[in-house]
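ok trying this again, last paste got cut off
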Amino acid sequence: HKLPDDHKIVLNILSLWPNGVQIHELMPLLESNEVKKSILHELMAAGWIIRDLVDGKSVYRFRYSGLRSWIHKSIPAYQRIQNHITIAEQMTEAKDGNPDKVATHFLEADNRLNGCEYAADAARKSTAKGDSELSVFWYQTILECMPDRNRSKIAQISYELAQVLIAQGDFENALTHLEVAEPIMESRFHQKREKANYLMLYGLCLYEIDKTADSVSALEEALAFLPKTTALDYRIRIVTYLSRALRKLHRPVEVIKLFNTHQKLMPLDEMPYFSGALMESVAWAYLETRDFQAAEFSLKESIRFGETLGDPLALIDRYLAL
């Protein structure tokens, strides 16, 4: 049978939230459209909508997502856009703390400027929480929505996305985004450590996709940018990655020289993960040059750092080598 007009209004309003809506978010629009809250219960009884738990919060949502999409698209464009803007502005004024929801509504309203700003906030918060998949989703959404003329922001977002992809082990795509960022990021490197970090990530990606010689060049350039007395945490990372690349190219003498040059400038005890990996490469280099005493000492140091982390797989290989 035909739905009453006030029921249609409520369904139109509910369709503005793709993943469901809490009652306190819904009420301002219900009140502004002069419809009663009790209609929600009637729509539930009729099977249009259900109450559900999302992230531990009670929400109203459509029983079928396809129905929500159809109703959402049937709302006149000007009205749909205005409603999404109203919701986004109410959430920002209330300091809702959910940049992902604010971003969704601004982007639905084709307000790409504000939408991308909140999407970037959502991506960074997702990264901080360890939710890399959601972080990648928001970064990719920004790159799809941001105008091409905004090249500086595209570079920044590409750079941040590349770092998340590296953490996921997706080095090929990370390299693509680093290359997008490089021409514009170049002018923004006010500190040497920023340039060194970029080149370190670039070199790491090249190493992981078997472009080892290019990786060595990038990592050596990264090392050259570092000040001698600061950015020591960067130094040990770069030296570790570079020693692995030199080992892959079977250049043991260069590994030993690299370690001896930077040994006193690296906080080995403060970063046992990198220190253990570095000392394993150094031990290999000494074995290749038949300096067995130095190789034994380096392997024992590598084991000591590994025991600090409690990494059994790494320790097994190192004990076997010893």
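PB: full thing came through this time. The chain has a mean pLDDT of 88.
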